[in-house]
Specification:
- By secondary structure, the protein is α+β, with helices and mostly antiparallel strands.
- It is built from 2 helices and 5 strands, in the order αββαβββ.
- The mean pLDDT is 78.
Length: 214
Amino acid sequence: MGKNSAEDTIKEIAREVSKATEPVIKEVTKAAEPFIKDVKVATKPYVEKAEPYLKDIKGKAEPVVNNIKEKAEPVYSDVKEKAEPYIKDIKKKTEPYLKDIKEKAEPYITKAKEKTAPAAKSMKATSQKVAKVAKDMGSDLSEKTAKRSCKEEVFVQYSHHEIKTSDIIEKAKKDYISKGNKVTSIKEIQVYIKPSDNAAYYVVNHTDTGKIEF
């Protein structure tokens, strides 16, 4: 108890000393800044003069370093060769333990596989269903796209006349609207072409009827 108390007291004194000296250190650092700057400026010419010598030393040192590397390589190779039998021996000795661990783990791995098999099977079946739905949707979209991109026209020919059915439908709609009806009120329209009358009869929404002549 006494030892801990003494250590705590010393730590507290150290903190107080650090706190008390902090402003002084800051002032000293601030006061020293101009001198440090002056020293840098003053030593700059000497540093610049020293650079060629430093480069020369570096250039002379490189062959020595390369020589050391070259001499070290055979030693490294020799150490590696001598170590290989020990490494192989360690591998050989550990193999039975690894094999034993693997054999002991196999029942647990098999059990885990058996437990997860139904879920995996279900996931596979679901994936196949999703793939089929995607394929069907793709085919359906392709068919719809083909239908949209396919230009379809129907003509009725009689007695030197030719009538385009889409034109007749548009004329029937215009005739219906001209009678005070709105285009938005047309939900269904059936058109019956009667060449013998040179006319077409239409029915809108199964209630309103009309006639247009060719």
